[in-house]
Specification:
The chain is mainly α. It has five helices and two strands; from the N terminus they run ααααββα. Helix 2 runs antiparallel to helix 3 and helix 2 packs parallel to helix 4.
């Protein structure tokens, strides 16, 4: 009985290593985690397939596709970016909100 635990632990470690790209994609809530799993499961036995799945599990394009927040200028009713300090159409200063003010202060610290 005592010698039967070794192969079980070895199997768990090998399976965990084999499906490491899938585990990483699932933990990062990757948009293509199912596809990463399929590449990992079907082509992971080749070193190249496992490497492709590993690289793919770390790259997720969903963050780069976010649309910036927008708001309506209270002076001319044109839609502008929410972080705008001035309206690019009427040129008037926009009302300040807490989040925008924090970003402005951070930008002035870096930009001078």
């Amino acid at each position: 009985m005592e010698h039967e635990i070794g192969p079980i632990i070895l199997t768990i470690v090998v399976a965990g290593s084999y499906f490491l790209p899938t585990l990483i994609a699932a933990s990062k809530d990757h948009t293509d985690s199912v596809a990463v799993f399929l590449v990992n499961a079907l082509l992971g036995w080749t070193v190249i397939g496992w490497g492709v799945a590993l690289v793919w599990s770390y790259t997720d394009r969903s963050n780069s596709l976010k649309v910036p927040a927008k708001k309506t200028c209270p002076h001319c009713a044109v839609i502008i970016l929410a972080d705008s300090i001035f309206c690019r159409f009427c040129g008037r200063e926009q009302p300040v909100n807490q989040a925008a003010e924090a970003r402005r202060k951070k930008a002035t610290e870096w930009g001078g």
